[in-house]
């Protein structure tokens, strides 16, 4: 029977490790050794990681890879990607190279508007609340002056504050729906600080508003928080080429390839079961760059999937068409990204990733990330409609299986060259490995 622990966060790192290893693992000595193996030798660097979160016991590594040859608006990028899935960087690189000779990616920003809301309860006359809101609105903005000063200097700030009556959905529920421009910052802290100030002012001013009855004066603030649903913080990335240029080594004609791509996207548009997987493949590319650049991939995921459902049914984030003899493939995706603040100036690898990307503005990073997502989807669909996904996937996964089996360097070399000529499946790799060992 496990026992709860009081004051875990107050224990030293060593004590935390001992406690977790002894109480929750079979071989505590081994656990402790492995956890420590992942500590950095550089104590300053380790301290930085320790302080990112509470109760740090070790570091959890992900590979950082590079997908080169991304031509985006005629600028050549090498894109850093942090991801564990074997085939993602390879697929992105392959797709980037494919489009490199076909004009590259053309991207544009559709909008950069961020959203935050103050959710509150008000029981009373809605028209009166509206009059109160119009009166108090300048005060709401005046009170955040110290918070928004620097952002305004740079050209950002509050775009709008709107009172929304949501009482038809939930009794007494109202909100301040606020929109912001946060420039190169993701803006979470800025937005949440503004919202909490709006909430405070709203509550205080309501108590003083003479038109309100005593009960109307008692506006109940429920919460103030940014929204990760940002349909107007949107970027578009596109690739296109004459259909004839699509011809590769596949055993299908360029026209058939184009038509199958369009059909594959059409299926993802109408069939949510497929759309979820289709979009998951897009997020393979998106998240990997988001993570490498120190951004919040959960926020990006939540916003992207909300956008995928914006028309009432979960659907594809990418689109494809054949117009005349031109094949066009594009994505529209909301991305709230930052290139300043947060981890961007703190995590040494994030700093390097941003440097590799030529120190992008948030708008530029949105375009790079969208291109990575589109490339990933192109790569996945290309495999799916031609060879099937397993061929490429297993080729990349081969090393993982061999590592699991404990293959030596020379065994790996032999088996990698063997599977260049044979189809790799998990069982085929195990059999080939066992045969190789038997031969010795
Ligand atoms: C696997 O991580 C992603 C794919 O399933 C995406 C897709 O099916 O489009 C290959």
Number of domains: 4
**Which term fits the overall shape?**
globular
The name of the CATH superfamily of the largest domain reads 3-hydroxy-3-methylglutaryl-coenzyme A Reductase, Chain A, domain 2
Secondary-structure element string:
HHHEEHEEHHEEHHEEHHHEEHHHHH
- The rounded distance between the terminal residues' Cα atoms is 48 Å
Q: Would you tell me the structural class of the helices and strands?
A: alpha+beta
> Helical content, roughly?
40-55%
> How large is the share of residues in beta strands?
15-25%
CATH topology of the largest domain, by name, is 3-hydroxy-3-methylglutaryl-coenzyme A Reductase, Chain A, domain 2
Bound molecules: (R)-mevalonate
- DSSP summary, beta strand count: 10
Average predicted local confidence, pLDDT: 96
Count the DSSP helices: 16
Low-confidence stretches: none
CATH architecture of the largest domain: Alpha-Beta Complex
- The CATH class name of the largest domain reads Alpha Beta
Give the tags.
Alpha-Beta Plaits; 4 domains; four-stranded antiparallel β-sheet; 16 helices; globular; binds (R)-mevalonate; HMG_CoA_Rdtase; NAD; HMG_CoA_Rdtase_sub-bd_dom_sf; oxidoreductase; EC 1.1.1.88
